[in-house]
Predict the 3D structure of the following.
Amino acid sequence: MPKGEETIGLRSRAGAGRGLDDMDRKISGVLARDATVSYSDLSAEVGLSPAAVHERVRRLRAAGVIRGTTADLDGPAMGKPMLAFVHVNTRGWGKTRSLLSLSAFPEVEEIHSATGDTCLILKVRVASPHALEGLLARVYDVEGVIGTKTYMALSTHLERGVQAGVTAAFDVDDHVRD
Amino acid sequence: MPKGEETIGLRSRAGAGRGLDDMDRKISGVLARDATVSYSDLSAEVGLSPAAVHERVRRLRAAGVIRGTTADLDGPAMGKPMLAFVHVNTRGWGKTRSLLSLSAFPEVEEIHSATGDTCLILKVRVASPHALEGLLARVYDVEGVIGTKTYMALSTHLERGVQAGVTAAFDVDDHVRD
DNA sequence: CTCCTTCCAGAATGGTGTTCGCCCGATTAC
DNA sequence: GTAATCGGGCGAACACCATTCTGGAAGGAG
């Protein structure tokens, strides 16, 4: 819906990605939306032979650009209709190490160290308020945790993985390189 | 790392998932980790014939339990090494509608309406501080936006999709149903 | 100019996804 | 208690696709 800005789909050997050319970005973009496409369809979409596409995908995987291919499950269907972001405050640094044990809970989907007025940001998906309570209890069990602040997601309007495209208007080259 | 709690992998027709039995959860769990496995390997892992597994996966897709299969890209490799959560405050409700236009930016990965001292939570992945500045400018362009608070992710310790498992100790049945 | 590297197209093949028909167990009605 | 009906899984056949190999063209470096 934004007005004039263009998404970079064609870019000649951009900065961060070492050997990532336009074709790689195009292929990655398609697979990031739907990885079930056959190499035949994929090759037709990007304008290359199936063999060439196969080789590129293999290298993208090997290089870690494509970290994996996963099935995206539905939270509510999995019995976890509640999504929340939990900001955790700890006393001093380094306490985040013990909080990594939270990875063992399938309810915890993301753990980030953060700047701002909080130390750690958790993304959790739980079955019920009671389940959230139980999870928060585990967080408080960790030594050094001072407090938490929970943001419940009332509705999710967009939720997707890393996108291949980059907005041209936000690109580094446009305004920084002068 | 948590001590005693068990993850439910086997559960007889739990509440939220209507027709989801143990086999469906097991299959979903495997595919959520790696969707590249062949039906042969998958069938061997869950203890079913390839044909039966195929039929179940087809139904899981049709039912929306498996929403899609996507390639997980690497942020830094895609030229977007910076991850941030942006909390947006608006004047009054209903302003979130216009903010949905942010979906057009590949930098925006998630948009949630939220409770707490904020209205909207965005998950954004950008190339540079300058790109983040440009994106924030777009947010402020939206009518009714009072302010934002940005939490930069210093390091990501865990980032994954919806998990099939549910922690037994957090389950509704354990303490609510008595 | 020549060699080297890199990349892509075309063809062959082994594996796999997909479908069909049959069989078994559970449920229901009589 | 018996029989009919339904749902689900198994085994096999077929078609499709992933994967590999070979050849050839384009771009650089010496």
User: Anything to note?
Assistant: The mean pLDDT of chain B is 85. The two ends of chain B are 30 Å apart (CA to CA). Chain B touches chain A through 92 residues (CB under 8 Å).
